[in-house]
Amino acid sequence: MAEDNVRGLVLAVSSSVFIGTSFILKKKGLRCAAANGTRAGNGGYTYLLEPLWWAGMTLMCIGEAANFVAYAYAPAVLVTPLGALSIIISAVLAHFMLKERLSKLGILGCVSCIVGSVMIVLHAPQEKTPTSVQQIWDLAIQPDFLIYVAASLSIVAVLILHLEPRYGLSNILVYLGICSLMGSLTVVSIKAIGIAIKLTLEGTNQLIYAETWFFMTVGAICVITQLNYLNKALDTFNAAIVSPIYYVMFTTLTIAASAIMFKDWSGQDASSIASEICGFITVLTGTIILHATREHEQANTSGPANRYTSKESHKYGDDEHLITLHNTDYFD
Length: 332
Prior knowledge:
This protein is mainly alpha-helical. The chain has 12 helices and no strands.
C-alpha cells in the first residue's frame, strides 16, 4: 500500500475511534445531566456543565479534524466507507459502558463492517496527489465532473423547489436526497481544501490562488445546506431509519463524485475494482443490520404507554441531534 494511503488509513481509523468514543462520553454526560436537572430532549442545557459531555465534544472535534486530513492523503473510496467503524466502536463501548446489550445480530453487523473495511483497504487504489491547486481545478472542470455537478444541482433544485413542499414531510428520500447530493460535493471540496493546506504547510503556498478560496466557499455552502436538510430529516423521521439510508446514499454518491473527479479507479484492474465494490456493499450491509437491530430492540423494550411518534421522540429523547459529515450518530 502506498505511503499516503497508509497515512490516510491511520487517520480515518483514528477518526472513527475518536468519534465513536465521543458518542458514548456525550451520552454518559447527558445521563448525568438528566439526573441532576432538565433533560436535553426537554430543552435543558445542564449537560453543558458536565465534563464528560465536553470530553466527548473534544474527541468529536479531534475525530472530524483527523477525517478532514485523511482526505488529503487517501482517496474517498478508502476514507468514506471507514466512517462505519465509528458505529462499531459506539456499539461495543455502549455494551460495556452503558449496559446497552449488543445482540448476536448486532455482532454480525459489526463483523460485516470489519470484513468489508478490510476488503476495501486491501484493494484501495493508489491516488495520484495533485501538486498544486491549479491541477485540482483542472480536474474539477473536466466535462464528466461538470456533468455530475450540473446533474446534482439540477436534482437538488427540483427536490427543494418542487418536491419538498409537497412530499418533504412524507417521503424521507426528499430531504436525504438533498443532503446526500450536497454532501458528495462537500467531500470533494474538502479534499481539495485539504490538499491545498497540505501543500501550503510543505512550503508551496496555495492560499494566494483564487481557486483555493473558491473551493472553501463551495465547501462552506455545501456543508450548511447538507446539515440543514439532514436536521430536517432527523426532526421529521425516526433517526433509526434516517441513519442507515443516509449513510448508504451519502457514501455511494461521495465515492461516485470522487471517482469521477479524481479518477480514483484509473489504472486499477477489474478484479480490484470488483473487490472494492464488494467490500463497500458488505460495509453497507453491516451498517443496515446494526441499525435494524437497534430499531428492533427499541420496539421490543417500549410498551404501549411508551410508544410515540417520531416528532415526540425527538422532543422527549435523551440526546440532542449532533451531526457529523459522514453521519455515524449511532446513538441519537
